[in-house]
Amino acid sequence: MPPSTSPPPPAASGSEPASSSGARGAQACHPAPDGPHGSIPARILFFDHTAKLGGGEIALLHLAANLDRSRFTPIVLLGADGDLRDRLREAGVETHVLPLDDDILSTRKDSLGPRSALKLGTMLRLGRYAGSLARFIRANAIEIVHANSLKSDVLGAIAGRRARVPVVWHVRDRIASDYLPSAVASVFRALCRRLPQFVIANSAATLQTVFPEARDEAAPGTRRRYAVVHDAVGPSYAARAARCDERPARSGAPRVGLVGRITPWKGQHVFIRAAKRVLEQEPGAEFLIAGSAMFGEDAYEAELRALVEQLGIGASVRFLGFRSDVEEIIASLDVLVHASTVPEPFGQVVVEGMACGTPVVATRGGGVVEIIEDGVTGVLVEMGSDEEMAAAILGLLRDRQRAAAISAAARRAALERFTIDAPVRKVQAIYGELLASRARARSR
Question: Most buried residue, 4, 267, 286, 364, by CB count within 10 Å?
């Protein structure tokens, strides 16, 4: 089937997904694949509840677009239409939309709990959706379901079981009480051991919140059911990192920025307070906040704007809103700040900053400590400390030689560790093991 060329018409949650080639009659269109080494590439379904371009969705785009098409055919099913669908289409990836109800899409992770999960109406809608997803899997001869988000994990597992295909959960969130309600974290950890055939975590820190006994990543081919696969930068970032010329010196006022969704745990409030401290010593500095509130967090954005005015730094802080030119923004900065107040599952913007050669100041915790070598490829500070953050920013602005050394080391590290080749190899090896195991089971 070719990539869809236009958005599907609106559909109820329980309806079949529409596509340019007619998914309802697809049972006869796609012969079952021979497997990863057969003549017909295995069909892999990537499933995500959203089409908004968060870190996990960007990682999905990179992975789906770079699979070895001689072995695997990527197909993406989204629970909503949006920018991700457009980007996937541009990359030549077949993409469909099966709309999830708006109230499910807009539910924040930190609001989940037994009361919200057990509402009868919600359960019925989710059940109908899983049924439609299972029919899509069978109709399109899917061999593996790769669920890309917490909301898609359970739906994908139910549908995969109905369709009798293996399911991979790509866990991109820390399954811990500082990130999710404790009851939800406990249930999800238990489900990780029962529902998916394999669990991929985006960092060792994430993996250990799911499988506390994990001490290293499991290589494909072992009896373990999990592995760590770090996310990668996109091709334009990789090309930028590969350039050997030094990062050109910027003229004009020092520019410091934070890029990411506006939400309390991303720490924009800490960044603003650090900006106040920096401006007391570098009054000409500019501070940029790129990103928008996504899931009912407009009140927090209003609080941030009020804080800027309260601190008297409105002339020096700019809110850029959602931007599609993130790479150019990062490359234009003298310092990129990551300010999360809880451990980050991975830290996509951190590796993007490294690839751009922009010195990064990041909070110490979670997957970030697997990315940055403190003082070598970036600077780590304690979470929630605007004082430490300001000191680190000032240190890089004032010592340009040190900033240049960190910039060069960071670009080398990004090129060596965070380009797409390594994660694609690891994920394809996992697919190969799952397909081989399925073939053995069928032959018995």
Answer: 267
